[in-house]
Write a structure and sequence with these properties.
It is built from eight helices and nine strands. By secondary structure, it is α/β, with parallel strands linked by helices. Bound molecules: adenosine-5'-diphosphate and guanosine-5'-monophosphate (5GP).
Length: 205
């Protein structure tokens, strides 16, 4: 039996497009076990190198609206003209099995999760400077100038929501950002409410 915790921890990671979320998550997942990446549904087109079912589940607007109508989504939002959403089913199964689940979602979706899952852990990740964010978006070579401009404007707008998060991570170097997230997850694991079974076992309570 896993005596360390009963239910998995839901982790919400938000941050502007291009800050390095996917890069940091890939590095974190290569180091950490017992954590599941929630593959979102989106109506945006796949970028070069993205795989259906791995980075996202790529669906049509009609399919996405069907999921909304059937109430299958924990949360969803429209972001720069596309729908993005999190399916409830897999997350619930993983959390129930004691596996941590990480959502990479934008601020409107995070606000919905905060209302529905108050025990979730909310982490916001920022670049070391706005100029560096622009450099990373350009350096990725995946979006047009117009899309990049939209994403930079969105980044400014989203930054007004940072105070609603529990933790702020700065992605100057990937290894530093991963170390900070590891520290946050370890601290969360040590919360008294996550270790109830342990201390009750020790003291036969
Ligand atoms: P997001 O998932 O937040 O949209 P990506 O992970 O796709 O961002 O990263 C955007 C670009 O920035 C990629 O080209 C990636 O290689 C680069 N990048 C990510 N983290 C760093 C970092 N700490 N320093 C420099 N470049 C980075
Ligand atoms: P991108 O197009 O760069 O992959 O993602 C754009 C934004 O959508 C990012 O801020 C990302 O965190 C967010 N996003 C990805 N999946 C979801 C989701 O399921 N729900 C919500 N609300 N946002 C998401």
């Amino acid at each position: 039996m896993n005596r360390d915790k009963q239910r998995g921890q839901l982790i919400v990671l938000s941050g502007p497009s291009g800050v390095g979320k996917s890069t940091v998550i890939a590095e974190l997942f290569s180091q950490r076990k017992n954590i599941h990446f929630s593959v979102s549904y989106t109506t945006r087109a796949p970028r070069v190198g993205e795989q259906d079912g791995v980075n996202y589940n790529f669906v049509t607007r009609e399919e996405f609206e069907g999921m909304i109508a059937r109430d299958e989504l924990l949360e969803y939002a429209e972001y720069v003209n596309n729908y993005y959403g999190t399916s409830m089913k897999v997350i619930e199964e993983k959390l129930e099995a004691g596996v941590d689940v990480l959502l990479d979602i934008e601020v409107q979706g995070a606000a919905k999760v905060r209302a529905r899952c108050p025990d979730a852990l909310f982490i916001f990740i920022i670049p070391p400077s706005f100029e560096e964010l622009s450099r990373r978006l350009h350096g990725r070579h995946t979006d047009s100038e117009e899309v990049i401009a939209g994403r930079l404007a969105k980044a400014k707008e989203e930054s007004t929501q940072i105070a609603n998060y529990d933790y702020l991570v700065i992605n100057d170097k990937v290894s530093n950002a991963v170390r900070e997230i590891e520290a946050i997850l370890t601290a969360a694991q040590c919360r008294v409410k996550n270790r109830e079974m342990i201390y009750k076992g020790v003291f036969a309570l």
